[in-house]
Amino acid sequence: MPQIEIAKQAGACYGVERALKMVREAVAQAQGEGKAKAEVHTLGPLIHNPQVVAELEAQGVTVVDSPAQRPGSTLVMRTHGVTPQVEQAARDAGVHILDATCPYVKKAHLAAERLSREGYQVIIVGEEGHPEVEGTLGHAPEALVINDASELEDLEAARRVGVVVQTTQTRACLEAVVGRLLGMAEETRVINTICDATTERQNAAAELASRADAMVVIGGRNSANTTHLAEICAAHCSQTHHIETADELDASWFARAALIGITAGASTPGEQIESVRARIQGLVQGPADDSAGAK
After folding, report:
1. In what order do the strands lie in the sheet with 240-243?
2. What is the C-alpha to C-alpha distance for residues 135 and 205, in angstroms, rounded to an integer?
């Protein structure tokens, strides 16, 4: 029977666990006060995990697009953070704010703001349109977003360039961008805001994928860090499969596998990982032989 191994670092990070705890405590408090509805809302999905968002919705936590949609209620700022303008709009709307912004994301926001204030041309290494990057742009509106070193080809760099990074980016991408910038600007200041948890998960996934015959990567398809994990695993293991739930697993993926590896993005709780592990074990074991216990 194949061996199933979970990467040494996988699943929900500190920022995600902190945010979930804050929301669940807010729901419990509302229920303790006898309210029929929790009146707790998140500004955008709390994390990039559709299953967890659906679970919270079942508990009365709804997703809103604007602070003005639920005046007087509790509004949770999601882990990816928001722009200062959106936060001010929430205060103006009279909502009770719970700031669940990941501390590492907040570090990136403030780093961009500081570089801008000090006169650097700010470059954000990240994915344009991603909520975290949009939040960072709110602190340095004139910044440029670069997802790949090749995008610097036509850049007219200023004399002083400052770099911050989306927390879920890969070190390889950052190094490629910085390497190109070093020959373009007189001064390049880099504030490495990649989250340690991201790097640890990427390194652990690469190590396991290099040994595995099949890899399963668990996490939302709208999750940047999970997508990067899948890309890293695929570079080491051709039989890499990105799933959101155990229902997506296919026994044929593991037909010739001696070692099956599992990793998960930073927005994937431990119970989802265990659900996938248990389903894989059932698939590779096959149907039980009832005759073995017959008398």
Report:
1. 3-6, 259-264, 214-218, 240-243
2. 28
Handedness of CA 66, 245, 243, 275 (dihedral sign): positive
Q: Cα–Cα distances in Å, from 184 out to 111, 114, 127, 156, 160?
A: 22, 22, 22, 8, 10
CA-based nearest residue to 55, from 187, 183, 220: 220
pLDDT tens per residue across span 65-77: 888 776 668 899 9
Helix (H/G/I), strand (E/B), else coil: 65? coil
The predicted structure's pLDDT at residue 286: 66
More confident residue, 194 or 94: 194
DSSP-H helix ranges across 131-236: 131-139, 171-181, 196-209, 224-236
Q: What SS3 class is residue 160?
A: strand
Amino acid at 249: L
What is the C-alpha to C-alpha distance for residues 286 and 255, in angstroms, rounded to an integer?
11
Q: Of 132, 134, 175, 207, which residue is the catalytic one?
A: 132
The reply to whether 132 belongs to the active site is yes
Task: Assign residue 286 a region (left: φ > 0; alpha: ψ between -120 and 50; beta: otherwise).
Answer: left
Taking the complete model, does pTM exceed 0.70, yes or no? Answer: yes
